[in-house]
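Data deposition worksheet. Section B asks for the primary sequence of the deposited chain exactly as it was used as input, without tags or linkers unless they were present during the calculation. Section C holds the resulting structure in C-alpha cell form. Section D is free text for depositor observations; keep each observation to a single sentence. Incomplete worksheets are returned to the depositor.
Section A, Depositor: J.P.
Section B:
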Amino acid sequence: MISLALMEVAERRTPERAYRVAGAPALRIVVLDVGLACCALEVGAAITAGLLVPDVAGPGVPKGIDATVLLISGTVTDALAPGVLRAWDAIDGARHAVSFGACANTGGPYWDAPTVTKGIDQLLPVTVYVPGCPPRPEALIAGLLRLVDETATA
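Section C:
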C-alpha cells in the first residue's frame, strides 16, 4: 500500500498540497508528504491545530513558490527507498528535503535492522533535520521556518 502511494506520488508532475505557515502568511510551502509512519500523523496534527493552513490557490504549484519541499517521515526501508527516490526525482525545479523524526533522521529504534536506511541523507541531500520521536507539530513548523532562513542566507 505504501509503495503504491509512493509510486503514485512519484508519477505526479506537480505537487498537490500547498500550505501557508500560520504566523508567516507570506510564506507559501508546497509539501510532497511521503508519510511512512507515525511521524506523518504529526503533520496532520499541525494542519488540525492550524499551524499549517491549506493554501487556497488550488492544486499544483501556486505562483510565488520558489521550491518544493519533500517531507520524509518514518522508517525508510530498502523496499521503500526506490519509491522515495522516484518522488524526489519527480520534483521539477528547486527542491529541498526535510527529514522529520528519528526514523527518517537515523533509522530510529530500527537503526540496526539490515533493511533499514540509517538516515534518509544516505539517499538524498537533506536541508533540514527535525529531531524527535515523534516530533511535535510545532517542531515541524520550526523546521520549515529554519528551512526558509537557511535557504534565504545561502
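Section D:
Strands lie at 18-21, 24-35, 52-54, 68-73, 95-100, 128-130.
Helices lie at 2-11, 39-48, 81-89, 102-106, 137-153.
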